[in-house]
């Protein structure tokens, strides 16, 4: 690969659910350490695009290249690919009957075969990093939404992914808890994690994104640096969307 390594390259991606053509000829390249923020109205296909990148949904046509390797359902172990691409959802999906540290070590020990002692050591370091060093042995029900989401981030990081996908990670949170999660994500970005983030937090997009992608009805309508997209959008649809959310 070239000096500026491509982490994700999507070309001519199409995805339909039955008759509904949801992703229309999507082209997207994400370089290593880039933070790409996807914005767009509800139903424009943002989640479907993320889910295709993580192979939770299967494309109908086009190509998806992750880390230089073209991924095909037939010839790949999709569980392996999913380990390279971590995902954080709006709803945290923690195991309620497991403690915080047990949540974090579950996948490394069960899926990757990491030794439990090693997984615990690494898991604790990740929890320290997301500011939950005092919550290792607590059950999720005792945590705030912001804390749960930070556990979910630590849990995804425990698989040592090359890319992290975030699908509206703060949309289910009370407003006063949004910032602690955005701060954790910002720190991750500063460490050089490659990230694709769907969010309505335009402040985060302005501050942290290298690129902002505006989607409308299954197409990428506009793509640019945050300054360009927020200060001088070229497309009328982008302007209309931004004036509805800003
Ligand atoms: P966004 O995340 O931008 O709100 P989505 O990707 O969730 O958009 O959805 C895009 C379109 O695809 C919507 O019309 C939605 O109803 C439809 N859709 C999403 N997932 C499915 C599914 N599993 N089956 C059928 N339709 C779906
Ligand atoms: Mg969505």
Automatic annotation (TrEMBL):
The record ties this protein, via Gene3D superfamilies, to: P-loop containing nucleotide triphosphate hydrolases
Q: Name one GO cellular component term.
A: plasma membrane
From which domain of life does this come?
Answer: Bacteria
Q: Which organism is it from?
A: Oceanobacillus polygoni
Pfam families assigned: ABC_tran
What family is this?
Belongs to the ABC transporter superfamily.
Kindly provide the name given to this protein in its UniProt entry. Polar amino acid transport system ATP-binding protein
Q: How does it sit in the membrane?
A: Peripheral membrane protein
Claim: Transmembrane is one of the keywords in the record: no
**Localization in the cell:** Cell membrane
Xref: CDD domains: ABC_HisP_GlnQ (cd03262)
Identify the keywords attached in UniProt to this record, alphabetized. Answer: Amino-acid transport, ATP-binding, Cell membrane, Membrane, Nucleotide-binding, Transport
Where is the organism placed in the taxonomic lineage, from the top?
Answer: Bacteria, Bacillati, Bacillota, Bacilli, Bacillales
């Amino acid at each position: 690969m070239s000096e500026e390594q491509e982490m994700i390259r999507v070309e001519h991606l199409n995805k339909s659910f039955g008759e509904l053509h949801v992703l229309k000829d999507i082209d997207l390249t994400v370089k290593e350490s880039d933070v790409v923020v996807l914005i767009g109205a509800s139903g424009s296909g943002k989640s479907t695009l993320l889910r295709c990148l993580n192979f939770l949904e299967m494309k109908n046509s086009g190509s998806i290249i992750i880390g230089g390797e073209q991924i095909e359902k037939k010839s790949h172990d999709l569980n392996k690919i999913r380990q390279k691409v971590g995902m954080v959802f709006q709803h945290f999906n923690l195991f309620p009957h497991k403690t915080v540290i047990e949540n974090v070590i579950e996948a490394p020990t069960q899926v990757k075969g990491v030794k439990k002692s090693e997984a615990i050591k690494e898991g604790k370091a990740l929890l320290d990093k997301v500011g939950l060093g005092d919550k290792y042995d607590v059950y999720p029900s005792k945590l705030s939404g912001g804390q749960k989401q930070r556990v979910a981030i630590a849990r995804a990081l425990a698989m040592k992914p090359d890319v992290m996908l975030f699908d509206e990670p703060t949309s289910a949170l009370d407003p006063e808890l949004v910032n602690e999660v955005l701060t954790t994500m910002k720190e991750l970005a500063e460490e050089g994690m490659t990230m694709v983030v769907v969010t309505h937090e335009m402040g985060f997009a302005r501050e942290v994104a290298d690129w902002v992608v505006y989607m409308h009805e299954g197409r990428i309508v506009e793509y640019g640096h945050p300054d360009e997209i927020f200060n001088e959008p070229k497309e009328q649809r982008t302007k209309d969307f931004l004036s509805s959310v800003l």
